Write the structure tokens for this entry.
Amino acid sequence: MESTIDRPRRTLARNQRRQQVIEATISTIAARGLARLTLTDVARTAGISHGLVLFHFEAKENLLSETLACLADEYQKNWQAALETAGPGAAERLLAVIEADYRPAITTPARLSAWCAFWGEAQSRPVYQKICGERDAFHIQTLEGLCKELVQEGGYTLDPVHVARILRLVVEGTWLDMMTVEASYSKVEARQTVLTALALCFGKHFADPQTAQG
Amino acid sequence: MESTIDRPRRTLARNQRRQQVIEATISTIAARGLARLTLTDVARTAGISHGLVLFHFEAKENLLSETLACLADEYQKNWQAALETAGPGAAERLLAVIEADYRPAITTPARLSAWCAFWGEAQSRPVYQKICGERDAFHIQTLEGLCKELVQEGGYTLDPVHVARILRLVVEGTWLDMMTVEASYSKVEARQTVLTALALCFGKHFADPQTAQG
DNA sequence: CAACTGACTGACTGGTTTGTCAATCAAATT
DNA sequence: AATTTGATTGACAAACCAGTCAGTCAGTTG
């Protein structure tokens, strides 16, 4: 008897199909941008009719919101998971949160590209702003908390809010660089840059990759 | 005899009208985003017919490219002018280039918003990438050069490329923050963050605003 | 003043795109 | 096997929008 369960089905379960369409949306945004995105594009990428996309998401606007929410969820779960498996020390935990941003599953070219596209459009769309906003606030709060711990621990004369911001911006910035800057650099270079920033901020806790090697 | 020169004319000179339409485009992008931008929107903002927009720019795509080129030009001229009027020392010059990014004329909400919109769309549009790319490369080169000078001058054990990148990303990042992050902070806060970063990188040349005050 | 040039308008066209819906089909249930 | 449920399609309607163009008008030049 052949298996009837794991053979690809013509009709998929609701959640599976929705996830598949969202993946197709991410790819299509990466390839064509938000401005030129059409439902027919998305449908073609997913290998289904455009009517089915609307059947599952009601409206284009809704599909886009849910796609962004999916990306934001993924991002948050990723760094939170990293935080949970990290050791108890503030330094370890800060490093874990930062390194989580460079995990391959998160930094897919298509995902980065889609993320940037939403970011650019968010200026004029409160809906998008709100989806990212709450999760962002939590992320920032966490970073600030860890920096505060480190400042107290190491007796640094630094404003934890400023330092947390600097570190976050360097991480986010290297993301964007890897996408946009023409002569783009590698993920290794990006992480080295972040480690340099960490060493500059918290020299007693982190060694500069430069001096550590040479 | 009344003046015939400075009275507002119904028909404008070619360059004047083009500039006006570009300004209208920037405002409209800020208000509606690139994805929903229509020529009718732009025309309404400029107070002219949408036929005239096409008369001056041939095609929508062309209007957008020229608008982006205008923003990029403006940006470059701004920091280059700041560099020319700065003193001879590397520290002064670096500070001048960085502070130029916070001049009010450049950091208009509409301009920042439009800039972000183009940035987001640039992933999938080589045309946009190219317009920014060359100018960006020059900007990065300049920053790296100044950082290199400072490193030699102060005997820091730092990679100038990494430091230049960190500083640039903090500046760019505060820009984006002021636009996107929900509980946004002020331009003063942004500049303080950058000064903190400068002090962390080049402690012998720049004082942390924190310790300088307290 | 007459002729001319170039800016300007607004109606129109063709093509594209979102969203609807009736019909179809696969899978589960009875 | 018959019925039901819910996914799926493709044809269709309506809206929208970029781009065209014939004709108008303002400003200039001879």
Residues 10-14, 17, 48-52, 55-56 of chain B lie near DNA strand C (CB under 10 Å from a C1'). The mean pLDDT of chain B is 92. Residues 126-154 of chain B form the longest helix (29 residues).
